[in-house]
Amino acid sequence: MKLFVGLGNPGAKFARNRHNVGFMAMDRIAAEHGAGPWRKKFQGYVADATIAGEKVLLLKPDTYMNESGRSVGEAARFLKLPIGDIVVLYDEIDLAPGKLKVKAGGGNAGHNGLRSISAHLDNDYVRVRIGVGHPGHKDLVANYVLNDFAKADQVWLEPLLDAIASAAGRLVTGGNERFLTDVALALGQDAPKADTKTEKPSRGENAAEQASAEPRKTGGHPAGERAGKRQSALADNLRKWMEGRRKGNSE
């Protein structure tokens, strides 16, 4: 059995906050895999699902973010789960919007939800870091994460949540690299690698270690990029044909 945890703050006013992207991901996983109805348990809301042939308990703590460990710890102890069978999905300001990374263990990087979970359990649970971007200064972080995603963010957010839900079976089977690969392919991106480091990554870390739903600079959204490449190829072929015609007429 696995325990999937999405982090966020309870209540309708927080529902679309950047800080609640873990809740959003959990709801999307529940819908994708036909999870049972949400019910109150373990100081949170839980739903039963079968993913990749294995039972998975989905959990959204009903505590505030900085007390998430109370809910996660209670569930983990009741289920007698090894720490490696717990997967936590949460917002990461040190990743650009739409970036995605996975690793087991590591530091908490100032995230209050992780800090609380680590205080109640061991530190080696699996983390799925969903990039929401950084406001540019540490004094702006609290207000930034407690505000809703912008309308422009929906371009990458909705496809990313769908891709996470579709690939969730890889997290069940321990295939972190395959999870990132499946997400990347669903988004029209090159296959990345899982982040196996235990230290907090730097912002200059190799881009191949993350999946991304962020539009590429040269083509915007992946679908637009593919269209742009096709148009470029057609233009190149037309140019070559015109050059051939000019040479033929000059001979």
What descriptive keywords fit this protein?
single chain, 251 residues, alpha/beta, Rossmann fold, 2 domains, 8-stranded mixed beta sheet, 7 helices, 39% helix
Number of strands: 8
Q: Counting H and I runs of at least 4 residues, what is the number of helices?
A: 7
Low-confidence stretches: 198-209, 216-232
SSE sequence, one letter per element: EHEEEHEEHEHHHEH
How many distinct folded domains? 2
Task: Report on the architecture of this protein.
The chain is of the alpha/beta class and 251 residues long. It has 2 domains: 2-214, Peptidyl-tRNA hydrolase (Rossmann fold, 3-Layer(aba) Sandwich), CATH 3.40.50; 216-251. It is built from 7 helices and 8 strands. The chain has helices spanning 21-32, 68-79, 112-120, 141-145, 154-172, 176-186, 222-250, and strands at residues 2-6, 39-41, 44-51, 54-61, 86-92, 99-104, 126-131, 211-212. An 8-stranded mixed sheet has the order 2-3-4-1-5-7-6-8. The longest helix has 29 residues, at 222-250.
